[in-house]
Design goal:
By secondary structure, the chain is an alpha/beta fold. The chain has helices spanning 6-19, 41-49, 69-77, 87-95, 142-153, 169-178, 190-194, 221-226, 228-247, 249-260, 282-295, 306-316, and strands at residues 27-31, 59-63, 82-86, 100-105, 114-117, 133-136, 162-165, 184-186, 199-203, 215-220. It is built from 12 helices and 10 strands.
């Protein structure tokens, strides 16, 4: 039997999470690239081990997206308006007047993001992307900002590269293999699953500092005012999930593999490498946000800095 495609695996994982819902109090949150990237690992573990239920919030379903602004829109429309989304997308939405608050930091490193090409491609470094079609996920996403920042760091004129919003991680892989784009982004667990079919062009960590915040937790202003205890329960449940991954990596990897419906032989390449929010460095959020202000001037418009505004709440989600 042929293995499911990355896109179908993500969809199946989302449907599985939604199908677990039980009772009138069961609720759904949003996690970017659920089923296709390890942003969701702490939530998968927390749901499996009952960490959310223990704190009085019954999260049994997870909505996903291809990243960027789509995750933010899903959060706004969700029955429980909490989402872990790309930091650039959160900033852009808040700057645009969306009633959102940043309440925690999520993934704290971009070390596992890379751009890939077919094995026979002449692309072997970021310098080789000039004149080529290069994929990222979606506008306002982490990978949108990273490719712009990487080109700037290497002195590459953006006008000499055709950037293509190719969709999710699986869609980027498909576009590379089909020749629709010359290179596309990927990360774990897709990289470990598919690296026999592609080769690295460049790793983000080789051209930019790795300590950058990829994702943040956001809520609507209405939930922030009416449900602070519920928000605290979500953050504490997620944090407990992170701790469990660190304390029981093999079991946690099995939980994520089952939830994501991925190969059990690949599972241990992923959750272990995700830096927990306990080790959050404010400089990481600043670094990606500053890149967004430079590359998308509209993001630097007047008003309170949403990253700085969110810091006190983020600190409450860390140890100590």
């Amino acid at each position: 039997m042929k293995p499911m495609s990355i896109g179908w695996r993500a969809a199946a994982a989302a449907l599985l999470a939604l199908g677990l819902a039980r009772g009138a109090n069961a609720e759904t949150i949003t996690v970017t690239h659920w089923g296709a990237a390890f942003y969701g690992a702490p939530y998968a573990v927390a749901m499996s081990k009952g960490f959310f239920k223990q704190r009085g919030v019954d999260i049994t379903g997870v909505l996903t997206s291809t990243g960027g602004g789509t995750s933010v829109r899903n959060t706004l429309a969700g029955d429980l308006p909490y989402g872990e989304v790309a930091l650039p997308a959160a900033i852009e939405a808040i700057r645009a007047g969306q009633p959102l608050k940043i309440v925690c930091a999520g993934a704290e490193s971009v070390a596992d993001i890379l751009w890939i090409a077919r094995p026979d491609s002449p692309l072997n470094s970021i310098k080789d992307i000039v004149g080529k079609k290069i994929g990222y996920t979606s506008p306002g996403s982490v990978t949108n900002m990273l490719i712009l920042m990487a080109m700037k760091a290497q002195g590459i004129d953006p006008g000499t590269v055709t950037l293509v919003p190719a969709g999710g991680i699986g869609a980027n892989l498909t576009a590379v293999l089909s020749g629709a784009i010359d290179a596309g982004m990927t990360g774990e667990p897709v990289w470990s699953q598919e690296k026999s079919k592609v080769k690295p062009v460049f790793w983000t960590k080789d051209v930019l500092p790795a300590d950058m915040t990829q994702t943040v937790g956001i809520v609507t202003e209405e939930l922030a005012k009416a449900g602070p205890d519920k928000i605290r329960a979500i953050l504490e449940g997620r944090r407990e999930g992170v701790k469990y991954i660190e304390a029981h990596p093999d079991e946690a990897a099995d939980i994520v593999a089952k939830t994501y419906n991925i190969d059990l032989e690949i599972r241990r390449d992923g959750p272990h490498g995700r830096r927990p929010e306990d080790r959050r460095q404010a400089q990481g959020a600043d670094r990606l946000a500053e890149g967004q202000r430079r590359e998308l001037p509209a993001a630097g418009s007047a008003g309170q800095d949403p990253v700085k505004a969110g810091r006190p709440a983020c600190r409450t989600s860390a140890r100590g």
